[in-house]
Amino acid sequence: MSSLLEVENLHVHIKTQLGVVQAVRGVSFSLEKGETLAIVGESGSGKSITVKGIMGLLPNNGRVAEGVVRMEGRELTTLPEREMQKIRGEEISMIFQDPMTSLNPTMTVGKQIMEVIHEHHPELSKETLKERAIEQIRLVGLSNPETRFGQYPHQLSGGMRQRVIIAIALACNPKILIADEPTTALDVTIQAQILDLMKELQGKIDTSIILITHNLGVVANIADRVAVMYGGRLVETGGLRDLFYETAHPYTKGLLASIPKLHEHNQQLFSILGTPPDLMDPPKGCPFAARCPHTMKVCQEYMPEYTSLSGTHKAACWLLDERAKKQGKDGADNA
Amino acid sequence: MPEERVILQVKNLKRYFNVGKNQMLKAVDDVSFSIYRGETFGLVGESGCGKSTLGRTIIRLYSATGGTVLFDGADVSGKMSAAQSHELSRRMQMIFQDPYASLNPRMKVMDIIAEGIDAHHLAKSAQERAQMVVDLLEVVGLQEEHANRFPHEFSGGQRQRIGIARALAVNPDFIIADEPISALDVSIQAQVINLLKKLQEERKLTYLFIAHDLSMVKYISDRVGVMYLGSMTELAESKELFDNPLHPYTQALLSAIPLPDPDLEQSRKRVPLQGNISSPINLPECCHFCSRCPKATEQCRKVTPKMAEVRPGHFVACHLIKPGQE
């Protein structure tokens, strides 16, 4: 029970004109101090909504229908908005995908950083605030911090803006940094710079990171543990090596096989047929059953339980169930 | 390579944009290359390097500022008669990046796909037109009943298939695919790429495949060109380019791609690249990569390097690499 953050059986519902979308359907995971957890999944798999549920930043039509989010023993989902406001920024902060739209275009970079620090430390004088803002700009590796302080977002490139956003997110030394696709909008050479920066800063200020991404290369670069989401459920979680080398769930396998490898030649590109399930009317069985090459009758009828494979590595798939193996239906090659 | 194998030859193509008083943005500056019949030519580079502008200039969505484009030996870059450009639009087609923006939301799929068929009078009767659309839908993996739906009823991957069917409707020889998969999810990307490969085999298509996802480009392309700030910096066969990149920019670009394999990813050496792409407006005479290049010399800051063939089929524009030496 010493985890920094614990999420238990989280359900998030989003009301739309056409009905209720069950975007997150019973997600549980924990985050330890100083580690990087990557949440991987396709668009619509519920990964962004999961962290928005944790942060209390769901859209007006969304609500946490069930489940517990505990940070250092403190329950977050029932906290009043004013308390939550204090936790955001100071304890947990978030970086969004698009560096072009998450900064205020009419405020200088320095002022935007000062604003966050002021919000959480109203006692600080203006001079101290400025000093800390400049310190923060230096921390994220921007040249000429004093000049950058007075510049507007449009004067900076995409990579530089993402650095400013990281500076803002880390301004109050949060314990958890949630990064929602932080490098998706950036070019690969800039992406490499930002990933290096995140790793370096994590070492310096000992923050835990939850990284949301669909890029498995980014995951391999930075993550300690990985959680794979599909159709609003966690289908597999485990250490980085477990996920890549001891892959258990057919969806994770398919995902890994559908990216061409740079260092290999002439391999056939695998593609997962079909499309993800409609979460307005989610399947009662395994969410991946309709696209799975090993699908069985039981997959369509019953939601698979998690099978523990080793220490932290577990996957929800009927093929891993003991009974499946007994009947000789061992289609899952555990290699 | 024999001349008749070349389907498209681009010679010193330039496309400049006037972006204000005395400000010239050279989006494509003096680019030359050839594409052979039946191959896939991949074009990669970071955002703003001019790869999309190059594709759009070839297909005449932009007029060329200078240089020529020869398609099957005929110049298609300057003024053309209505009949000529009509014929070109049948033989050269384009697939766009954003499947949400490139289909008219007020038209049914049937009419979207048949637009080219109508323009070129390829169908003799309404019945034949409908049959052609149904056949095309089948080719790209959609069903007959999809013809009477509107674009908003489809997912991103399905829409991209509609875009592909539209491009195929006029039986083109050459298709420019401008980032056809970057708006799609990983598992859907593989579906679309496999479809493009299958169609290429069946219909003997030639592709110009523009993308920034290098691993996908490597997978689908026979030859690859790398662009940086409006110029081609390196061009080689796909395997050769990825195994043996010579230009410092290509080396940095390849080393920056995160590999989906933890052991490889965390053990390999990066070629670190400092700074950002410089502004493409009013570029001085120099190697455009010199401000970020770890090996830049005095010569690089003064003279723009020219493309040179350092090995058979492997072209590099860099002062530091001379033919026969590595």
From TrEMBL, chain A:
Keywords: ATP-binding, Cell membrane, Membrane, Nucleotide-binding, Transport. It comes from the Bacteria. The keyword Membrane applies. It is found in: Cell membrane. It is a peripheral membrane protein. The keyword Nucleotide-binding applies. GO terms for cellular component: plasma membrane. Its main location: membrane. One of its GO terms (biological process) is peptide transport. Residues 5-256 form the ABC transporter domain. Pfam families: ABC_tran, oligo_HPY. One of its GO terms (molecular function) is ATP binding. Belongs to the ABC transporter superfamily. This is Oligopeptide transport ATP-binding protein OppD. It comes from Caproiciproducens galactitolivorans. The lineage of its organism: Bacteria, Bacillati, Bacillota, Clostridia, Eubacteriales. The gene is oppD_2.
UniProtKB/TrEMBL annotation, chain B:
Keywords: ATP-binding, Nucleotide-binding, Transport. NCBIfam families: oligo_HPY. Gene3D superfamilies: P-loop containing nucleotide triphosphate hydrolases. It comes from Caproiciproducens galactitolivorans. The keyword NAD does not apply. One of its GO terms (biological process) is peptide transport. One of its GO terms (molecular function) is ATP binding. Belongs to the ABC transporter superfamily. PROSITE patterns: ABC_TRANSPORTER_1 (PS00211), ABC_TRANSPORTER_2 (PS50893). It comes from the Bacteria. The gene is oppF_2. InterPro entries: AAA+_ATPase, ABC_transp_ATP-bind, ABC_transporter-like_ATP-bd, ABC_transporter-like_CS, Oligopep_ABC_C, P-loop_NTPase. This is Oligopeptide transport ATP-binding protein OppF. Residues 8-254 form the ABC transporter domain.
